[in-house]
Hints:
With 284 residues, this protein is of the alpha+beta class. It has a single domain (11-274), classed as q2cbj1_9rhob like domain (Jelly Rolls), CATH 2.60.120.620. The chain is 23% helix and 24% strand. It contains seven helices and 14 strands. It has helices at residues 24-40, 54-64, 113-119, 123-131, 195-202, 257-264, 269-274, and strands at 42-45, 69-75, 96-103, 137-138, 146-151, 157-160, 166-173, 177-178, 181-184, 210-212, 219-222, 228-231, 234-235, 240-248. The strands form three sheets. Strands 1, 2, 3, 4, 5, 7, 11 and 14 form an eight-stranded antiparallel beta sheet that branches. The protein has a four-stranded antiparallel beta sheet with strand order 6-12-9-10, covered by helices on one side. Strands 8-13 form a two-stranded antiparallel sheet. Helix 1 (24-40) packs across helix 4 (123-131). The mean pLDDT is 91. Bound molecules: fe (ii) ion. Fe (ii) ion (FE2) binds at residues 160, 162, 224, 229. The site of fe (ii) ion has 4 residues, from loops.
Amino acid sequence: MILKKIDVKQYINTDLYPIDQSGSASESLIASSQASIRADGCVVLKSFLRAGRIEELVQECDRVESHGHRNFTRTNPYFTSDRTDLPVSHPLRRFYDRSNAFVPADNFGAESILRAIFDWPAFSPFIKKVLNEENFYPYADPLADVTVNLAEQGNGFPWHFDTNNFTVTLAIQNAESGGNFEYSPMVRSLTDENYSVVEKVLDGDKELIKTICLEPGDLQIFKGRYSLHRVAPLSGTRKRYVAIFSYVAEPGMVSSPQRAKELYGRVLPIHLERAGLRADSLVD
Ligand SMILES: [Fe+2]
């Protein structure tokens, strides 16, 4: 089969976001995005996709959504086991119902527009500059580098921290209502879990929580490893589709076997081989 080459510039709105150019427009885009990331670990680039091409992304998601792995679990924000030695109010002991689905990355092959965007030579250098990170690598997990999160009525995604350092998400289709993204910026660091403030966020302290409404075509760059975040519950019959492009600070990093099984329904040899090789000391 001969595959038609995907012209990424027909999808990314390079008139608004000239990420493949050098020059003042590109430099000022990077500078303003960096400022937003520095301020609270998040930047949203509205209408990053050309409006007229979003429907093709919706169709791509429609084609593979049946391969989504559905999760019905109770989890704490760290995806770890209960700690009965701690008080019941402690964040490690806050368990929430989670019903969600991820379409694993191996459903987005050479014919995928999403993978073409992820692999476009101008894309990841732009993200790397926005994040101002020296150590920046595409996630090496074959189930998790380009995924689609799908959610339906009654679903959401309760408070959690991401395993990957940086997440880049592209909103493709919203539910009829609900699904706002809520986050508490940079609430933990590599060396401090900051449990006392995390506990306040989980208790709903509005002073600590920001809310954004992502619309189809918007690109969000987010430091989800340090910022506690959730997706508010959805309603209506339409599915919510969000593509996730994942990057990490270490080459070769993959999910733990437990997390791969939970999120994608499968464990590959690479997950087992690399288990326990993480260099940081965070609890997940
Ligand atoms: Fe997340």
